[in-house]
Amino acid sequence: MAVTVLVTGAAGQVGRDLVQVLAASVPPAGVATALLGATPVLPGEFDVVELDHSKLDVTNAVACRKVITAAAPEVVVHLAAYTAVDRAESDVARAQLVNEIGTRNVVAAAEESSAHLIALSTDYVFAGDLGRALDEGDRVGPLSVYGRTKLDAERACPPGATIVRTSWVAGLTGRSVVHLAAAAAQSGAELRFVDDQVGTWTSAADLAAGLVQLIRVRPQGIVHVAGSGGASWYEIVRRAVELSGGSVDQVQAISTAQLDPAPAAKRPPFSPLVSRRLGEFGSTPLPHWTDGLGRLVRAIDHEAR
After folding, report:
1. Count of alpha carbons within 13 angstroms of residue 155, beta-carbon side
2. What are φ and ψ of residue 105, in 5° steps?
3. Could you give the CA distance from residue 295 to residue 39 in angstroms, rounded to a whole number?
4. Helix (H/G/I), strand (E/B), else coil: 302
5. Cα separation of 277 and 71, whole Å?
6. Is 124 tagged catalytic?
C-alpha cells in the first residue's frame, strides 16, 4: 500500500525534485545512486500530495489544519520557508512568521494527523567558528536573522520529528550561482566570488533523493544531509564555469570584506556539514559536491540549447 507523503513548498527547487523522485523518476540533474545507499523508489510506493504557496500558506494556522488533516498523510515533508537571507535582516517579522510560526502551524496539523514530520533546516544555524566540519552534535549560534528563524523552527518541532540540516542547495529550478556561472562561461563575463566562506554545496536533486530514505526510516532528531566535501564559493563557481566550457581565469577570488555592496546578513565562515547519524540506519553520504555540480551544469546547458 502506498505511503501518503505531503510536501509543503513543493514548487521550490528541492520540492520539485522530491516530487519527481517519489514518483520513481530521476530528476534531470539527479542520479539513481543518490538515495543514501537505499533501494530505488518503486512505482506506486508513494502517494504524493504537492502543496505550493497557492495551495497552502503555512502562516495560516486554520488553513494548515484543514488542508493537512484532509490529506491524512503518513509523512509531512516541510520545505516551505523564507530563504531570502539578506532581505530577512530588514524583514524580520515576515521571516519569523514564515519560518517559525509557519513551522509551528505545520507541526500542529501533522500531530493532529498522526503524521511523521520531516523539516528542512540549514547550516546557517551555526556560527561556523570551529574551523572544522560540523556534525549534528555541534553547538549552534546563528549569525543572521535567517539563521535565527530557522533555529527557532527547529525548536518548534517535536522530539519525534526528523530535522534535516543541509547547505548551499542549488537545483535546476530557479536561478542560482550555478546558472550564473554557466551563463558567464558562454558570454566570457568575469565573476568575483569569495574564497573565505567555506561550506558544502548540495545538489537539490541529490538532497531530494536522500530525503526518500528518511521518509522510509523516519529517524528522530537532527540529521545532516548535504553533498560530501567542502569548498569555497570561489572554488564552486570556478568549477562550474570550467564544466560549462569557460575558463577558470574568468573567476576572481575576493574576500568577504571586499564585497561591494556588503551583504546585509553575516554568513558562517566555515560550515561544511558531515553526519555521524546516517550510519545509524544503514545510510551512506550523498555524492561529492563536484559530482552533483557536474550533473547540474550539464542539465543547465542542455536546457539552454
Report:
1. 10
2. -65, -45
3. 21
4. helix
5. 31
6. no
Q: Could you say which of 82, 124, 146, 234 is catalytic?
A: 146
Range 69-84 burial, b when 16+ CB lie within 10 A, else e: eebebbbbbbbbbbbe
pTM: predicted TM-score of the whole model, two decimal places: 0.96
Q: How many domains does the chain have?
A: 1
User: How confident is the model over 258-285, as pLDDT tens digits?
Assistant: 999 999 999 999 999 999 999 998 898 9
What cell was used for 184? Answer: 558567464
Residue type, 265: A
Using CA atoms, how far residue 67 sits from 72, 82, 113, 285, in Å, is 9, 20, 11, 34
Establish if 26 belongs to a structural domain. Answer: yes
Which three three-digit cell numbers place residue 88?
A: 530577512
Residue 193: strand, helix, or coil: strand
133: containing domain? 3-174+202-228+271-287
Grid coordinates representing 278? 546516517
CATH number, residue 9: 3.40.50.720
Please report whether residue 261 resides in a domain.
no
| Predicted confidence (pLDDT) at residue 287 exceeds the cutoff of 90 | yes
